[in-house]
Amino acid sequence: MVGWTDPEGSRPWLGALLLAYYDPDGRLVYAGRAGTGIDHAELERLWQRFQPLATSDMPLDVPPPRDSRFGSPLVLSRVHWVRPKLVAEVKYLTGTEDNLLRQVVYEGLRDKPAPEVRRVVPYPKPSEPTRSAARSKRPLPG
Q1: 11 inside domain
Q2: In the chain, which residue ranges form alpha helices assigned H by DSSP?
Q3: Tens digits of per-residue pLDDT, 22-52?
Q4: Is residue 56 situated within a structural domain?
């Protein structure tokens, strides 16, 4: 996890978790948000775990997109960054063509070093066409 958003409405502590993974070159890449699956006690526990990891520096190499066809726009002024030390286990329905996770549900924290979190990207950027990548355009496994 690389951060969280401010809570909205009556939700306490935090809004959504900001997720990322490491690419093969060791860069931290934004993967999307998880806001469901977190009860009140877990919201407080996560908020307390984030406090010592808080940083004013965005840990991502490239800022997350501010808008998406899915979900509300990400307002960077309402984002709180953390050093990427905690790993969330999530489940998701599918991935988007811009390689974000869609319909993400938080399932808990993992006891795993963050640099080990890797992901095969099903939709390579147009500047990276390969024959095998062209064949891999299918939804992410859930």
Answers
A1: yes
A2: 40-50, 131-135
A3: 988 889 999 999 999 999 999 999 999 999 9
A4: yes
